[in-house]
Design a protein that fits this description.
- By secondary structure, the protein is α/β, with parallel strands linked by helices.
- Helices cover about 30% and strands about 30% of the residues.
- Strand 1, helix 1 and strand 2 form a beta-alpha-beta unit.
- It starts with a strand and ends with a helix.
């Protein structure tokens, strides 16, 4: 049976998307990006599903470092989007809540609602995940004074919903489908490439190489870690006489610092970054 491995815990946003996008697949979760990538490399699963970037311009650096560490072993084969909607859970009601539990990014994304509806409550940010904070309510006595924030799918834990859609603004996370087989470039219209240990001259040569072959980069960002520095480009082909199936192998052969990360068809990262897209979705 085909299997999709997602970033856990269960009933988190990655689990929501796995159920929606791959309803017929067996679902398994891992708690670390590296474990998902290794599962794909070992072919323990058919698909790995991992968050890549979200609409507040926050890239998921851990994944991008993982894709770099295992370049040429795992590849991005599709982009999927998932709206992030936050839900407040608790056994009491809004009037009895004295403490709200979750993780730092969730509090940042729900700050306006919390300040308006629960001003002055304690914000406990010590949990490993929002799912863990919800489960903690079931393990705490006198819990009518406690609440937790998580995904709407976390209602499966059996804790009552107190409020839904409490995020401050629309937030869509882009997920990557990763697989061990290099994707076919013949019918794709967007690709991700990386360049490592680069200088300004390297980037200039890359851009010139792409322009001559009718390609352009739509977005790019630098990943800098104490141990490594690289840059990721999303490229598209603008000229019908050139295809990415021709351009990418030539690029890898010509510019040794460049490496192929993945390819996909349809929506691309530059479109996902547009306000118009997020307003419509």
């Amino acid at each position: 049976m085909a299997c999709v491995v997602f970033l856990g815990p269960e009933y988190y946003f990655s689990h929501e998307l796995a159920v929606i996008a791959f309803p017929e697949h067996k679902k398994c979760f891992r708690t670390e990006f590296e474990d998902i990538i290794e599962s794909v490399m070992r072919r323990d699963c058919t698909i790995g599903l991992v968050p890549f970037e979200n609409s507040n311009s926050s890239s998921i650096v851990k994944l991008q470092l993982g894709l770099y560490a295992h370049r040429r072993d795992v590849f991005v084969t599709d982009l999927l989007t998932h709206p992030i909607a936050h839900t407040l859970y608790g056994f009491g009601d809004l009037q009895t809540i004295e403490e709200v539990r979750s993780i730092e990014p969730v509090f940042a994304q729900t700050a306006v609602w919390l300040s308006k509806n629960l001003p002055g409550v304690i914000q406990n940010k010590t949990y490993s995940s929002s799912s863990a904070s919800i489960l903690s309510l079931k393990e705490t006595e006198n819990n009518i004074h406690l609440a937790a924030i998580g995904s709407k799918y976390a209602s499966s834990y059996g804790v009552p919903v107190l409020a839904s859609n409490i995020q401050t603004e629309p937030n869509v996370t882009v997920f990557c489908r990763i697989q061990s087989d290099r994707p076919d470039l013949e019918n794709t219209d967007s690709a991700l490439i990386g360049i490592e240990d680069f200088c300004d001259e390297d980037v200039k040569n890359l851009i010139e190489f792409l322009l001559v072959r009718g390609c352009a980069f739509t977005t790019n960002w630098v990943i800098q870690d104490p141990c490594v520095k690289f840059r990721i480009f999303e490229i598209i082909s603008l000229a019908s006489r050139f295809s990415l199936a021709e351009v990418i192998p030539a690029l890898e052969k010509r510019l040794k610092k460049c490496f192929f990360i993945g390819a996909y068809t349809g929506i691309n990262l530059s479109q996902l970054a547009s306000d118009k897209y997020f307003r419509a979705n």
